[in-house]
Amino acid sequence: MAKKYLTWFKNYQKIQSGNFEKGNIEWFIGGKLNACFNCVDRHLPKKANQIALIYEQEEPDQTEKITYQEMKEKVCQTANLLKSLGVKKGDPVAIYMPTCPAAIYTMLACTRIGAIHNVVFGGFSANALRERLIDCKTRIIFTSNHSIRKGRRIFLKKMVDEAIKDLDFIDHVVVHKLTESEEDFHEEKDKWYEESIAKESKECLIEEMDSESPLFMLYTSGSTGQPKGIIHTTGGYLVYAGMTFDYIFDYRENDIHCCVANIGWITGHTYTVYGPLLLGATTVLYEAVPIYPTVERYWQSIDKLKITSFYTSPTAIRLLMTFSDQNVIKYDLSSLRVIGSVGEPINPEAWLWYYKLVGRERCTLVDTYWQTETGGVVLTPLPGVTPLKPGSTTLPFFGISPVILDPSTGNVLTENNVTGLLAISSSWPSIARTIYSNHKQYLNVYFNQYKGFYLTGDSAFRDSDGYYWVLGRIDDVITVSGHRIGSMEIESALVSHSHCVEAAVVGIPHEIRGQAICAFCVLKDDPKKEEQKKDLDSLRISLSNQVATQISRIAFPDQIVFVNALPKTRSGKIMRRILRSILIGKTSQQDFGDTSTLLDPSVIDELIEQVKLQK
Ligand code: 6R9
Question: Once rounded to an integer, what is the mean pLDDT over residues 552-566?
Fold first, then answer.
C-alpha cells in the first residue's frame, strides 16, 4: 500500500518498528519522500489542467476553480516566500486562516520545504491562539484579514495582533487578503500575502524528507486544561490518508469530493487536503455554514458541482432535519455515491434521514470513527462491502485491531455483546508519534493506563455481529457539534473571571449538537441571596463571554448553575459524573454510583436543589 499510494525518493528498508510501552512507533523506516511532491507535482504530467480545488464560498454564486498547475505555481511561490522569510526545515509555521486556497497553498508550501504547519482553527479566540503560539514558539504566522461567517466579517488579523502582543519571538505576520481592506497593517512585521508571493519564482526545489520527519502539528483538547500539540509524521500519515480516502470514499477518476470540515480540524487535514490531493482528486473547499444563506446550501452545492462523495457531521444533519424535507427532495443529488458522517455518534434517526433523503437509499453511508491522534479513519464501513447498520461505525479498517477493555481489570473482553473502553492493540501507520514537547504526557494519556494498548478515551459496545457502536468520551472531553473541547479548558476560563472562584463543566445530551455544555460555578458571594438574583443573569452573560474570549464561541456554556460547593473527592478531584447525573434529572443515591470518596456528601442535595431552582 505504501508503494501504491506514494512516490518515494528512496525506498524504506523496514516497514515498522517500536512499541506502545516505549511510545517509539516508526513506519517505513529509512524511506525518503515529500508530501507536496506527492500531492501536487507528481500529478502534473497527466493532470496539469484538471481542477484540484473548488473553492465554494458563502454566497452560492462565489465559486472559484483552481487547476493542479495553478496550485503548483502558488505553492512554489509560497514556499519561496517562506524561505525568504528565513523558514527552514523543521521550523513550525502557524496558519490561522479560513478554509481557502491560500491556506492550502501555505500548508503544502510548508511541506515542500520541510517546515511543520500548525493550523489553528479560525474560530478560536485571540487568547486560544496566543496559548498555541507560545507552546510551539513559532516565528511566523499566516492569517487572513478577515473570514466571513453568515455574511459577517470576523476580524482575524485583529485577533492575531491581540494574540501576539508582547510575544517577541514572532518575526512575521503574512496577511492574505480575503476581502479588500487594508486596516491594521504594521510595517515592521506584516506582509501582504498576494503582493509578497507575486515577487517569488513559480519553481521551488523539493526537500527530501525522512519518513519519520514531522509533517504537521495540530492542537486538540484533552482532559487537562492545556491543549496538546499532536504530531504526525510524513510517511505513515500519508500512506494512511491516501489509502483510507481511496477505500472509504470509493474514489474513482474524475470524482468530486466534498468534506465540509474546516481545515482547523484533523478532518479538514486528512479528508479535504491530504487524502484527496494524494489521489489527484478534485476537492471542494467549503467555506460555508449549512444554513446560510438558506437551509438548502449543501444540497444546492451537491447539485451544482456534481459532488460524488460528501462528508459532514451528525450535528449538521440533525440541524438540517428540522426543516422541511422538500428542501432536499427538490435537488438532483444523483451524482452522489458515498455520503459520510464524522465527529460524534450519529443517532439512528439522523442516520436514516441522511441515508433516505440525501443518499436516496442508493448511496453508502459511511459513519467513520477516528480522532486527531489516529490521523485517519479507524472504524468504518466500506462502500459495496460492509452491510450497514444505522448508528454503528461497523468494522475496523485494514490494519486496525480494536479491542474492548474492562475498565476495572484492564482485561480484553473477547466476547461479543460487551461494552467497555475502546482501545487499539497494535500500531498503524498514521498513529500520532508524540505530543509536541511533552512525550511523557503522550505516554501517560494514551499508553500507560492499560499497558500494551492505545487508549482512545471513548467507550464502545461490540454487538453480536462484531460491529462497533461508539458511545462517547469517558474522559473529561466534551464533543459539541463535533468539536472537541476539554472541560478543564472551559473551567479555567470561568475561574479567570473576577467573580468566580471555582467551576466544574460537564457535557449533557443535546438534541442537535450532540452535547451541551453545562457549568457549575461557585461565586465569591453567596449566590442564593434573593437580591442578587437579577444580577445573576448578567453574571451568566459575563461568564459566558469570558469563555468565548478565552477559548471560542463554540465553547459557550448552554447553562450556568450557581452553587455553594462542588462535589469533590477527598483528594480534591471534581466528581463530574455526579453533576452529569443531576443535570439529566437523577435524584436517588443509586443513580450516583460510588460516592464513598466524596468529601462532603451533603453537597449533592444542594446541587439537586439549585439545578431545579435555576432551570
Ligand atoms: C475525526 C475527529 C475525536 C472524538 C472521538 C469521538 C468522537 C469522532 C465519531 C466519534 C462516534 C464517530 N468521534 N467520530 N464518535 N462516532 N463516527 O472528530 O477527531 O476532533 O480529534 O475528535 O470525536 O469521541 O474520540 P477529533
Answer: 93
Residue 576 Cα distances to 54, 421, 502, angstroms: 44, 18, 13
Protein residue whose Cα sits closest to atom 4 of ligand 1:
371
Strand-pair category, 559-563 with 514-523: parallel
pLDDT at position 604 is: 92
What residues pair up with 569 in beta bridges, in sequence order? 598
Q: Is the CB of 367 under 6 A from ligand 1?
A: yes
Is the backbone peptide bond immediately before 293 cis, with ω within 30 degrees of 0?
yes
| Closest CA to ligand 1's atom 2 | 371
Cell 454503528, residue located: 392
DSSP symbol at 206: P
- What mean pLDDT, rounded, does the chain reach? 94
pLDDT at 571: 73
Q: Are the beta carbons of 379 and 402 closer than 8 angstroms?
A: yes
Question: Which residue has the least CA distance to atom 10 on ligand 1?
Answer: 344
Q: What percent of the chain has pLDDT over 70?
A: 98
Torsion angle in degrees (nearest 10) through CA of 283, 285, 291, 296: -40
Total-model pTM: 0.93
For 275-290, what is each residue's pLDDT tens digit?
999 999 999 999 888 9
- Look at phi and psi of residue 187 and say left if phi exceeds 0, alpha if psi is from -120 to 50, else beta: alpha
* 8 Å CB contact between 81 and 226: no
In ligand 1, the atom with minimum distance to the C-alpha of 472 is 24
Contacts of 93 (CB under 8 A, 6+ apart): 82, 87, 106, 110, 115, 116, 117, 118, 138, 140, 141, 142
Q: Is 248 in the pocket of ligand 1 (CB under 6 A)?
A: no
**Cell numbers describing residue 132:** 498555541
Q: Is the CB of 196 under 6 A from ligand 1?
A: no
Over residues 319-346, mean pLDDT: 96
Judge contact between 321 and 350, C-beta under 8 A.
yes
The response to whether residue 393 sits with its C-beta less than 6 Å from ligand 1 reads yes
pLDDT mean over 288-312: 95
Residues 6+ apart with CB under 8 A from 543: 494, 497, 499, 500, 519, 521, 557, 560
Q: Is 267 in the pocket of ligand 1 (CB under 6 A)?
A: yes
Q: Which amino acid is at 121?
A: F
Tell me the chain's radius of gyration from C-alpha atoms: 24
Rounded mean pLDDT of 60-88? 97
Query: 160-216: per-residue pLDDT in tens?
Result: 999 999 999 999 999 999 988 766 788 789 999 999 999 999 999 999 999 999 999
- 3-state SS class at 483: strand
